[in-house]
Specification:
The complex is a heterodimer of chains A (318) and B (558).
Chain A (H helix, E strand, L loop, with lengths): L1 H28 L4 H13 L2 H10 L6 H13 L13 H36 L4 H15 L2 H16 L14 H34 L3 H8 L4 H39 L4 H11 L2 H29 L7
Helix pairs in contact in A: 1-12, 5-6, 5-8, 5-10, 6-8, 7-8, 7-10, 8-10, 9-10, 10-11, 10-12, 11-12
Chain B lengths: L3 H4 L7 H19 L25 E6 L14 H7 L7 E3 L7 E3 L2 E6 L5 E6 L13 H12 L16 E8 L2 E6 L5 H8 L9 H6 L16 E7 L3 E6 L13 E6 L5 H8 L5 E3 L3 H9 L3 E16 L5 H4 L1 H9 L3 H7 L6 E2 L14 H4 L10 H13 L6 E9 L2 H18 L1 E8 L1 H10 L4 E7 L5 H7 L15 H12 L3 H17 L4 E13 L2 E2 L19 E2 L1
Parallel strand pairs in B: 1-10, 1-11, 14-15, 14-16
Antiparallel strand pairs in B: 2-3, 4-5, 5-7, 6-7, 8-9, 9-10, 11-17, 12-16, 12-17, 13-17, 18-19
Helix pairs in contact in B: 7-8, 10-13, 16-17, 17-18
Classes of the chains: A mainly alpha (318), B alpha+beta (558).
């Protein structure tokens, strides 16, 4: 087990190093001048070459690229994660302030996806090709196909024009005002959760269909067990492994999807910060947020792998 | 909704206040009839006073872009700074919030201008304190204006050219300061520059402590009506009433909450329409029209200090260097349709090379009779085709690189312009949509044939735009255009002190620009604001731009 963990840790570190290098290089070769956003259009137009040199040096952008990369890694090691080009806020502060709301949306979306996807998958698997199965499959495809940001905008507009309602737009943490907080996160969580729920429904359906054809399920039926008991005690645990695996992958989609969905709902989470940073060419914020998302994704997938042994005692890591 | 000011009743009317009010009313009427006058009338004895009917207290929730790239107002050119920061600062002079035009005293209680317009003496208020408790003196004004007129290295201030003729700035005593000019400039131009909302007065010590760069200093002390309380980036900036404000009785609201919303976004519209904010600035047309239909809401529109245009690169493309080709492109534009194309995205109006609402520019009725501005484009297109033929491009021009800023209005226009050019004068172009910062890189490096964007000015005065937009080395002369006759007239306009003569010169300059266009005007922007009628004391319909009148000291909640 220890050996396995060490191996996974090395893989994770290499992956993250690769991500950091890629994002660092990509952001520096992309065209566009961050000084336009910093100085504004008029200021940028009036900037002299000497001003440019001075400002680039102040921002740490005049160092050679390898030095800039090493500085960044040192910053990460020290937990500072660098400063935004613009207002001087550190990225660590940004993450501390906005991270909880995005994490809440991510977790809630996963809960929604399981709460919706699993029952639908079970229903479909145990009544294959029935009307409810047809409806469930159609709805699954629909929710996979509909872009989250579009559905989000529809929900925002529908609530506004039918009920004159708009969710709060200032971050309110759960421990400060749970009701305001819920209003803020529930919309994005449902939109993201429904899309992921559709994947889970399809995956659990196909896994269950495979499992219920197995001998042990036939034996359970022959023993006269109730269908519900067969599903819950025998079939489902054996069909869950792939579903859990895909949940880890889906978390990546949830994080990625939160970028667009937070923007659509106007939730000031990390996803929206990433969009703004990209628009402003605030490369320090972009590279740190992308790396954070990568760290979360890698960690979740390691945890998913580790959970296999707990879920299926036959699996050994040696 | 009635203008709240028309409802206010004076408590006492003596001969002096009668004359004063009559004068103000007269000036307002003149301004309203000829909107807006350049560097409008200045009124030295018109320090802003609270509306007698006003009630004190409450929280004003204001929605605007409040996420600046940095905090240095002097170095900025965006509403993201002015929106949240202006209420914390004062300027030497200011534009009256009653009409957005008349220049009234602010930290300078009065001023004198020498007969040759070469010396401006400002008498400063006594007893004014910065938010950190320090006394305000002429040294602070000197430090502020030295920085604006002659910025230190690494500091870029877009308003520097307005003060190009400022020589010595002399502190006469702690409450008197003189600006000695190397050359005279029209009064309206200079007073407009001093009254610009960008030129906030900051402490000398603040500038010294930060080596003259305030980009990353979030809360530096001002003397303004509101004091900083807290700020959450891209969420809200909260300010409270400055109890020690020099203008006793102001401000009227206890708390100001400035919420962050990007301009023209559905989010901004939704926050206003759902009643989560009291006042929204830069609404999208769809939300604004919806607001207009709502009971208890005022939807106001006013002129913005921005031209939307596209540039023709004269250095890269030989054909575009020919004035006849550029005139043909200018005439091939169906401007009324272009305004219509973006009507649900941003409010626009037709105009030429000078702000169409400026008193020195060709009046709108006359402009719309000219080729290029008529609703019926046939005569203009005919003339455009003739010019193309005459210039040797009767068969058109192919493969122009048309660089488009990645913003909804420009993308919509670019497609329409591309079609108009093709259909009217057989010019074919390939659209290249790029991110904003890339657009400016490309425009400044000259990597384009056509490039569409928008540019802003500080003043409505033609001298400001003639140097920045059309000047030989103007920072926004992306076409690399030169015309000696124009530059000569522009220089005369800059120095001419007589308004009538200036007007004639401006019209001459317009004629040159019409025939040898340095850029192709697409339209002029308007601003859509909306507010619930409980917000009193604010009437933006005659304002010019969104940068000069953003103090909120006169606003109260009914």
């Amino acid at each position: 087990m220890k050996k396995y963990l060490a191996r996974r840790a090395v893989y994770a570190a290499v992956t993250l190093l690769g991500v950091s290098l890629s994002i660092f290089v990509i952001l520096r070769v992309l065209p566009g001048d961050p000084l336009v956003a910093i100085l504004g259009v008029e200021g940028h137009a009036r900037m002299t070459p000497a001003d440019r040199v001075r400002i680039m040096a102040d921002l740490g952008l005049s160092d050679p690229l390898p030095i800039q990369y090493v500085h960044w890694l040192v910053d990460i090691g020290a937990g500072r994660l660098g400063k935004s080009f613009f207002r001087g806020d550190t990225v660590a502060e940004l993450i501390m302030h906005r991270g909880p709301i995005t994490a809440e949306i991510g977790v809630l979306a996963l809960v929604v996806s399981w709460l919706v996807g699993l029952p639908v998958g079970i229903l479909s698997a145990f009544k294959p090709n029935s009307v409810p199965d047809g409806i469930a499959r159609t709805m699954s495809v629909l929710f996979i196909a509909i872009p989250g940001f579009w559905l989000g905008m529809l929900i925002v507009l529908a609530l506004l024009f039918w009920f004159g309602y708009k969710a709060p737009f200032i971050i309110v943490n759960m421990w400060e005002d749970p009701w305001q907080n819920l209003q803020m996160v529930i919309g994005p969580a449902i939109v993201l959760g429904l899309a992921q729920g559709a994947y889970i429904a399809r995956m659990s359906r196909s896994c269950l269909l495979e499992v219920i054809g197995e001998d042990f399920v036939r034996t359970a039926r022959a023993k006269g067990l109730r269908e519900g008991l067969i599903v819950m005690r025998h079939a489902l645990p054996n069909a869950l492994l792939p579903v859990i695996t895909i949940s880890g992958v889906l978390l990546g989609f949830v994080l990625g999807g939160s970028v667009a969905v937070e923007t659509a709902f106007g939730v000031p989470g990390l996803g929206r910060s990433l969009v703004t940073a990209v628009i402003e060419r605030d490369i320090i914020v972009v590279q740190n947020l992308v790396l954070l998302y990568a760290v979360i994704f890698v960690l979740v997938n390691v945890l998913v792998d580790l959970s296999y042994a707990w879920l299926d005692p036959r699996i050994r890591y040696s | 909704m009635k203008d709240p000011y028309s409802e206010s009743k004076p408590t006492r009317l003596d001969r002096r206040s009668f004359l004063k009010r009559t004068g103000v009313a007269g000036a307002a009427a003149v301004i309203a009839s000829r909107l807006p006058a350049p560097g409008a009338a200045s009124a030295q004895d018109a320090t802003l006073r609270p509306d007698p009917a006003a009630k004190r207290g409450g929280t004003l929730r204001y929605a605007v872009h409040n996420a600046p790239a940095h905090f240095d107002v002097h170095q900025s050119g965006t509403v993201a700074n002015i929106g949240p920061q202006s209420p914390m600062y004062d300027t030497l002079l200011r534009r009256s919030p009653k009409d957005g035009q008349t220049i009234i005293p602010d930290l300078a209680s009065k001023w004198e201008i020498s007969p040759d317009n070469k010396k401006y003496t400002f008498h400063l208020r006594k007893g004014v304190k910065f938010h950190d408790g320090a006394d305000f003196t002429a040294e602070d004004v000197k430090a502020t204006y030295e920085r604006i007129a002659r910025p230190p290295k690494g500091v870029v201030i877009p308003r520097t050219p307005l003060f190009a003729t400022v020589g010595d700035i002399v502190v006469v005593n702690p409450h008197t300061i003189e600006f000695r000019m190397t050359e005279s400039r029209p009064k309206a131009y200079m007073l407009g520059a001093f009254a610009s909302g960008w030129n906030i007065i900051v402490r000398k010590k603040t500038l010294d402590d930060n080596q003259g760069n305030l980009r990353q200093v979030m809360n530096y002390p001002g003397t303004g009506p509101f004091k900083h309380v807290s700020r959450k980036d891209k969420e809200v900036w909260i300010m409270e009433r400055n109890q020690d404000y020099w203008n006793k009785g102001l401000p009227l609201v206890d708390k100001l909450e400035v919420y962050h919303f990007l301009p023209f976004t559905p989010e901004l519209g939704a926050s206003f329409l759902s009643g989560r904010v009291d006042y929204a600035r830069l609404l999208d047309p769809v939300s604004w029209r919806k607001a207009k239909e709502m009971q208890g809401v005022t939807a106001a529109s006013f002129n913005q200090s921005v031209i939307q245009a596209f540039w023709t690169n004269m250095q890269k493309n030989k054909a575009l260097a020919d004035p006849r080709v550029r005139r043909a492109i200018h005439l091939a534009m169906d401007r009324h349709t272009l305004v219509e194309v973006v009507k649900d995205t941003a409010p626009m109006q037709v105009g030429g090379f000078v702000y169409p609402f400026h008193e020195m520019s060709t009046p709108r009725a006359d402009l719309e009779k000219k080729l290029g501005y008529q609703k019926d484009v046939k005569p203009a297109v005919q003339e455009a085709r003739r010019l193309m033929k005459e210039a040797g491009y009767g068969n058109g021009i192919k493969n122009l690189d048309f660089v488009v800023r990645d913003i909804a209005t420009f993308k919509l226009w670019a497609v329409a312009i591309q079609a108009m050019l093709k259909e009217h004068i057989n010019i074919e172009s390939n659209l290249r949509v790029v991110q904003t910062s890339v657009w400016f890189d490309e425009a400044q490096a000259g990597n384009f044939d056509l490039a569409i964007s928008a540019i802003v000015s500080t003043l409505m005065d033609p001298s400001d735009i003639f140097s920045a937009w059309y000047g030989k080395d103007g920072p926004q002369n992306y076409s690399r255009w030169t015309n000696p006759a124009f530059h000569d007239i522009a220089s005369q306009i800059e120095r001419e002190l007589d308004d009538n003569k200036r007007r004639q010169l401006v019209r001459k300059a317009e004629d040159i620009l019409e025939n040898d266009p340095p850029l192709i005007p697409v339209s002029y922007e308007q601003i859509y604001d909306a507010y619930y009628n409980k917000v009193k004391g604010q009437n933006p319909s005659t304002y010019f731009g969104i940068y000069d009148v953003v103090r909120w000291d006169q606003v109260w909640l009914g």
